[in-house]
Amino acid sequence: MTQTSKLNSLWEYANPKKFLSTTERFLPGLWIVTALCLAVGLIWGFFFTGDDYKQGSTVKIIYLHVPAALMAINAWLMMLVTSLIWVVRRHHVSALAARAAAPVGAVFTLIALVTGAIWGQPMWGTWWEWDPRLTSFLILFLFYLGYIALWEAIEDPDTAADLTSVLCLVGSVFAILSRYAVNFWNQGLHQGASVFRAGAVTGTDTAEKVSNIYFYPLLICMIGFVLLFVALVFYRTGTEIRARRIKALQARERMSA
Amino acid sequence: MIALLTRDLRLALRAGGGFGLGLAFFLILTVLVPFSVGPQSALLAVIAPGVLWLGALLACLLSLDRLLALDWEDGTLDLLATAPLPLESVVTIKALAHWLTTGLPLVLVAPVLGILLNLPTPGYVWLVVSLLVGTPALSVIGTFGAALTVGLKRGGLLLSLLVLPMYVPTLIFGAEVARRGAEGMATSTPLLLLAGITAAVIALLPFASAAVLRVNLR
Amino acid sequence: MTLTVSDLTIARGGVPVLEGLNLTLAPGQALVIRGPNGIGKTTLLRTIAGLQPAVSGSVQGAEETIAYAGHSDGLKPTLTVTENLTFWASVFGLGSIQPALDAFDLNELAARHAGNLSAGQKRRLGLARLLVTGRPIWVLDEPTVSLDTRAVQMFADAVRAHLGQGGSAMIATHIDLGLEAQVLDVGPFRAKLPALDDFDGGFL
């Protein structure tokens, strides 16, 4: 009994008006907590941890690189879930949340790529390495671009929501496929080297390898990025809802004229 | 279904159908490669499998925006959607027709272009095999992209943006088969993976294409 | 096959255009849909043909029974008249296209490419397609556009013959076809706009 009522109350937020009034209430607080988390994590990370004995101060780019990479993937996952909710339950807010998340996810992917390049330059002596992880992120970025472009290209909002949902679904499968294909492809080219690089330099498994003085500020940064993503998506979803409302009102105007 | 296939083939072969454009594009692209990288035959031999795969892929892409858009513009898709043929078969047949008019000729002409790029002798068989196994996937994935963008006025560029990332796995495994074949290495692993992708794509993607087409028709 | 539409609400671009629509179309009946431009006649016919979903309400008896003809005829300019018709005949599983050629006086044009036909001739070919579908319910959106008086007469005769064989037809048109048809003016069914204060998933 309580379970069903809880579920019902969750779906209530699918009403755009309810969504707007609720997010307006807690967004300011969320912004503050996000800013605090990022400030603490980044300042602690940049100024109060020692340099790595091998990498020097370059190691500190980890505080941007790893959280951005984490959110690059999770943003796509979130889009996948909200797209499915739209397909199954036809909640407009869900589709708009997916739309709102895409540019944020794309920017996080771009941050992960650029910081990766900046980190890679002193470490590997090159700005770009066709390392499986970097390559997969590049492909993910292309999927983001396609997804955003499709939203922009289609005029009718419901059609756009349907088409982008299917694209997100199919794209996810192909992104995973590409991940494995890229792994296969690069090992085919540089035997062994990629394993070392993938494990030691990029990705989340770094967190286990770095010592605790790096780990805690990194954790705070990661939480900060998650909160930043949530805040941005809520904020942008609100904007999308208002834009849709304007569009609907304009359509209504045309009809009564 | 056979009626749809024969109609599509006939349309492609008649004047203005665009048959052969893909082949000509493939030829020109291959001819341009030595101009851009230099005429050293050793270098060309190394890059030949990859270049030929990329050329075939781009030639496939070239004709995709006509694949469904023409039937959309003249109302044929509306009528097909109300016909007893399920849209899933329609998109499958469309993909098959695209492959027969674009993919298959590319496969057949690829060895000839291989000569131009100084492809090593053992590579010819594997180039043809890999293209034969891989190009159907290109057509089916392309049909999905065409179905997504069918309602758009200038969907061609967007179509490329959507389809090309999805071509990555096929390109990787296909070119790997051709490359390993040319270097005389074992090809069975990438070939099996390539065949797996093609089979999965043919089995599953038409449902997505049909769903997307239904959305675009309403 | 009787077509029953009950309490249908349809939308165009997310905005409801017609609501509360009820109608039945029994075998042998013809129904002419009237209404000002932009009211939603095309949307209604497309919804009934199953090309787009209804907002609410139901359409019964429409599966595999409807032959739809919209604004464009689905003709391929590089195929001949015969080839165009034969294609649709085989899609719908019917053999002979001769009755269709006869009904719309297309025999002399049979070997011509559809691209070389005049607008009116193309339209005749598009309407001839209805005869090779073998479907009992015709749903036609402005079928007489660019037809001359003689061709309109041909079309009216074809509809009459179709009704005589137990078929039915729903036609959105503004000209008088001389058919024994009911007329439905969809004007009164124009959807009322919802109140402005509280908006829901439709953003209205």
TrEMBL record, chain A:
One cellular component term from this protein's GO annotations in UniProt: plasma membrane
GO molecular function: heme binding; heme transmembrane transporter activity
Topology of this chain in the membrane: Multi-pass membrane protein
Keyword Phosphoprotein belongs to the record: no
UniProt entry tagged with the keyword Transport: yes
Keywords of this entry: Cell inner membrane, Cell membrane, Cytochrome c-type biogenesis, Membrane, Transmembrane, Transmembrane helix, Transport
InterPro entries assigned to the protein according to its UniProt record, in alphabetical order: Cyt_c_assembly, Cyt_c_biogenesis_CcmC, Cyt_c_biogenesis_CcsA/CcmC
Subcellular location: Cell inner membrane; Membrane
Residue stretches spanning the membrane: 26-49, 61-88, 100-120, 132-151, 163-182, 213-235
Domain Cytochrome c assembly protein: 24-190
GO biological processes: cytochrome complex assembly
Family (UniProt): Belongs to the CcmC/CycZ/HelC family.
Role description: Required for the export of heme to the periplasm for the biogenesis of c-type cytochromes.
Protein name, entry field: Heme exporter protein C
TrEMBL record, chain B:
UniProt-listed GO biological process terms: cytochrome c biosynthetic process; cytochrome complex assembly
Membrane topology reported for the UniProt record: Multi-pass membrane protein
Tagged with keyword Transmembrane helix: yes
GO MF annotations, alphabetized: heme transmembrane transporter activity
Keyword Membrane: yes
InterPro entries reported for this sequence: Cyt_c_biogenesis_CcmB, Cyt_c_CcmB_bac
GO CC term (a single one): plasma membrane
Domain of life (superkingdom): Bacteria
Pfam families for the chain: CcmB
Keywords tagged on the record: Cell inner membrane, Cell membrane, Cytochrome c-type biogenesis, Membrane, Transmembrane, Transmembrane helix, Transport
Name of protein: Heme exporter protein B
UniProtKB/TrEMBL annotation, chain C:
Name the UniProt record assigns to this protein: Cytochrome c biogenesis ATP-binding export protein CcmA
Residue stretches making up the ABC transporter domain: 3-204
EC number: 3.6.3.41
GO molecular function term, any single one: ATP binding
Annotated organism of origin: Falsiruegeria mediterranea M17
SMART domains, A to Z: AAA (SM00382)
One Pfam family this sequence matches: ABC_tran
Enzyme class: hydrolase
Highest taxon above the source species: Bacteria
Example GO BP: cytochrome complex assembly
Keyword annotations from UniProtKB, A to Z: ATP-binding, Cytochrome c-type biogenesis, Hydrolase, Membrane, Nucleotide-binding, Translocase, Transport
